[in-house]
Amino acid sequence: LVERVACSDIDTPGGKAQVFTYTLPWDSMHHVAVVFGDIRDGEDVPVRLHSEDVVTDVFGTSHRLDAIMKAMGERKRGVIVYLREGSVGVAHQERNRP
Hints:
Elements: E1 3-12, E2 15-24, E3 27-36, E4 47-51, H1 54-59, H2 64-75, E5 78-83
Parallel strand pairs: 4-5
Antiparallel strand pairs: 1-2, 2-3, 3-5
């Protein structure tokens, strides 16, 4: 049911990673998985499910994603699943927008 749309290498605050874009047949939005290291064995893989908050993620001062990427980069292992707000199963969040 889940279809991979694209894959590429990226530089992150945690170092090199791969980014995969996925879609679902009933939802036109694309979700993103940022993968650090080789996780093919599926054992002890740290995973962060992160709901989209573009304003905070890009312009915010908390740098939550930066810290998570750095930790996964240091471990050379992990996945961040970036869930698009408003997509099937991902609720809209009440946030104070500038």
